[in-house]
Design brief:
With about 220 residues, this protein is α+β, with helices and mostly antiparallel strands. It contains 5 helices and 11 strands; from the N terminus they run αααβββββββββββαα. Strands 2-11-10-5-6-7 form a 6-stranded mixed sheet, with no helix packed on it. It has a 3-stranded antiparallel sheet with strand order 3-9-8, with no helix packed on it. A two-stranded antiparallel ribbon has the order 1-4. The longest helix has about 55 residues. It binds 2-acetamido-2-deoxy-beta-D-glucopyranose (NAG) (4 copies). The site of one 2-acetamido-2-deoxy-beta-D-glucopyranose has 3 residues, from loops. The site of one 2-acetamido-2-deoxy-beta-D-glucopyranose (NAG) has 4 residues, from β10. This is Sodium voltage-gated channel beta subunit 4. It is found in: Membrane.
Length: about 220
């Protein structure tokens, strides 16, 4: 297929196309985790996505196992608007899960009914004809285990419990402080009221100070 009109007509753009450094024009990613753990007998999604700033056409993708040359699954993607098509599959337990629609560019695979022998290096490859057929890849390591270790969870739970306990204790202390000051205030107010009323009683005989004592209660209440 010839290059789209505007590109082939403009020689400067064509030069720019091949001048793009490979690392920046296309990227393949398997996510943040380089090692994923899965329990035997279950299924696991091996993630892989790619991004291309110059776009792609008739892109070829494939997955390899343990640096072997023969792919375990292989396919093509016509363009950004079409879903990937599987052209070769070595194993019935592997299915392509991704989609390229809506710019997802997702070529993840699902491994079903995991066996211990499935553990190893899985590499996701992408070759973009629009990019001088350069190949890009990303590798994820799968470890099939008896059961997922709960150690990390327990540690997290302990930390959460401690932090939660400390926060709870602080809140309790603050509430207690509030309650105690409230009670103290109330008892002090009562004492003051008693004092005021008693002094008021005392001052009724003295005239002037008594009128002051009568003014105080409304501001307190
Ligand atoms: C996973 O392997 C363990 C140990 O070999 C076994 O006991 C268990 O039944 C297996 N689980 C499944 C789902 O096959
Ligand atoms: C890729 O597709 C799979 C299956 O639909 C999904 O579980 C996964 O989250 C997708 N990954 C990304 C990065 O979108
Ligand atoms: C693939 O590599 C892993 C370790 O990286 C190894 O345990 C496993 O046996 C290898 N599988 C095959 C089929 O060579
Ligand atoms: C991944 O790509 C790099 C650079 O293109 C290449 O050297 C390496 O051999 C590739 N890895 C695999 C497993 O094909």
């Amino acid at each position: 297929m010839p290059l789209p009109g505007p590109v082939s007509k403009n020689p400067h753009q064509l030069v720019a196309l091949f001048a793009v450094p490979p690392g920046q024009s296309m990227e393949v990613s398997v996510g943040k985790a380089t090692v994923i753990y899965a329990v035997n007998g279950t299924e696991i999604l091996l993630p892989c996505t790619f991004s291309s700033c110059i776009g792609f056409e008739d892109l070829r993708f494939w997955w390899t196992y343990n640096n072997s040359d023969s792919p375990i699954i292989e396919g093509t993607v016509k363009n950004e608007k079409s879903d990937p098509k599987v052209t070769l599959k070595e194993n019935d337990r592997i299915t392509l899960e991704g989609t390229t629609k809506e710019k997802k560019n997702n070529i993840s695979i699902l491994l079903r009914d995991l066996q211990f022998s499935d553990g190893g290096r899985y590499t996701c490859h992408v070759k973009n004809p629009k990019e001088n057929n350069l190949e890009h890849n990303a590798t994820i390591i799968l470890q099939v285990v008896d059961e997922l270790e709960e150690v990390d969870n327990t540690v997290t739970l302990i930390i959460l419990a401690v932090v939660g306990g400390v926060i709870g204790l602080l809140i309790l202390i603050m509430l207690l402080k509030k309650l105690i000051t409230f009670i103290l205030k109330k008892t002090q107010e009562k004492k003051k009221e008693c004092l005021v009323s008693s002094s008021g009683n005392d001052n009724t005989e003295n005239g002037l100070p008594g009128s002051k004592a009568e003014e105080k209660p409304p501001t307190k209440v």
